Predict the 3D structure of the following.
Amino acid sequence: MRLKSFGGLALEGVSFKRLKPMLLLAYLALGGPKPKRYVAELFWPEAQNKMNSLAVALKQLRQASPELANNDESHVWTEIASDIQEFKEALQRQDYALAVGLYQGPFAEGYDFELGIELEEWLYESREDLARHAQSTYLQLGELAATVGRLCQSC
């Protein structure tokens, strides 16, 4: 199973479509383990019982697949493979062709539903940051192609 987050959010092999739990999964995939209380307040700022709202979302994710979400007394995290993770690893290895192949559009595209201010800021900042990395990668590939072209012309 793998989380796809570029160009929308989808779980390969599972037909799970709940918006906020999917965004929660992407949040954890991008940011790593987080304190439960912080996540509950970030995702459900208006809820009467924020921790209960988080528990419901985690339960929904686990019903789709038990390996999607993990938590202990204080933290929540996911260990699911994701295109975000693959994208970052490709950039670190300077595998620019793989990185641009993974970037299929803006992060969590189409998930512009009602969010709290902090979560909305995180979503837009993440989109901008990942798009900036993708743009830089396209430029790197272009420069590499231009360099190789110049070298071949002198052969």
Observations:
- The first helix runs from residue 19 to 31.
- The two ends are 47 Å apart (CA to CA).
